[in-house]
Amino acid sequence: APLLSLATMMNSEMPLPSANSRFRFAFTVYVILIMVVLQFFMVPAIVQWVETILICILLLLLQLWWWQQRRKPVGQSQRNHVFSQAVCPRTMKDLVENGGLQEIVDRTKIALRGTDLPDRPLKCVFSIGRGGGGHVTALNALKYALDQCGSTWEFEEVDIAKELESDDASPLMLLFGLTGEEIYNWGLCVGGWRGMIAARFLSVGSALAFWVLHNFSGARKHGQEIAAKEWRRVQPDIVISVITMANRIAAEGLDAAGMTHVPYITVITDFGHSFDHPWMQSKRQHVICGTPHLQRQAKELNWPPYAVHPTSGMPINPKFYDAIRNNSTVNRESQLRNMGLEPSHRTIMVFYGGLGSRRMLRVADMLQRFAKGDSRPINVIFLCGHNSELLAEIQSRIQASTYDYKAVAYGFTREVPLFMQVSDLVICKPGPGVVTEATCLGLPVLVEFNVATLPQEVTVARWVWQENAGMLWRGATEIPQCVAELFRQMDITGCKHLRHLMPNSAIYEVAE
Questions:
Q1: Which residues contact 431 (CB under 8 A, 6 or more apart)?
Q2: Helix (H/G/I), strand (E/B), else coil: 185
Q3: Of 154, 191, 241, 349, which is most buried with the most CB atoms under 10 A?
Q4: Cα dihedral 444/71/27/59 (nearest 10)
């Protein structure tokens, strides 16, 4: 699997930051020595398991090495700055204020009135997942948009991936008593090398497991039976999937349950489709493609044209449309004072998704370095998501006056649009959700992109780089320099908004 990913990555022109080659070489030698020792001093059964894991690590290191060699570092002299003009059009704001969203909603209501629908409420079943926070965010946004577009819906959620991974035949469940999503989420929360290895191997391992499930008749039939059992239980009129990897089994499970008439729609919440994170798996799927890259991939996979539905962007929570509409009425000074921050300072928001990440601690330390070396004072808002340990640690540092800047930390919150409205810059991982939300509000993003970046997030980093939607940082030590450069451009233009913004009404287009 790492070699297959390598073959794909080598054809890309996306630059990859450098890594410590001496450490990588020493680690590779260390792993080889361990394999030799195990071969002589351990029983053969254990050797087979351990060697399999170590060989996967070696392949991963080879992949990362090739990935680095095939790319040139991003030089600021080779690319345009985010703010090269003083003119900052707000095309998203034009879309909201000129009634574009309402036109879509009204058109959908008319279409529903002209359809021969049953008298009972329509049963809309969401196929969901718990790996990361983006799936749940998309789910909640879709529910809201469908309610806005009329008709009576009855919503229900089914976690097909969990049903498959919790089965007695699942290797992870047999060995560890955990599902792949639980281990994946742990890796995201921990961050660093441990988190990268856990999340990356679980991503590749899950892809391999589902590939076996799809391509071996016995495993495939077993998976279809599990999915069919769930569909018979919930009796859907339509299935909307916001998950990856399990779509083929879930879609074929509908046929196995005798529900060939039920449409299966997949709302892709990533910027791209890959072997490590596959979305388009069965031609029975209708796929919602939020980026031109996804549309090209669907064409390359010979997807039926009637089953490919492009949208103007990635689905975001409708609260962000309200934030755009009310942006001029938000009292930024009052909001910052209520948070205990200084209204006259530039404000940075650090956000690593709904699960948070301990990488935010390293970001906080680098912002301290910026505060010491730069004359411009800053506010920092840390959003830690569901990571309570991270929240407690950052709050304790703030209370101990560890940082020379004003800072506040929050756990999971539904007020992300408000925090973005009072911010000038977002520091984040290359997650499709946070990058889309920030750029829709006109904020530049400072995105981490290095060897720890997950395969499904590489396309997001590529988009940020190509569209000049912000800047990429390789190691945390580059953060002070990047922040200073972005602030310098803001001072020159007197404007914090991005130039290249496309209208995004995707969530209502999906409902339509």
A1: 132, 134, 352, 353, 457, 460
A2: helix
A3: 241
A4: 110
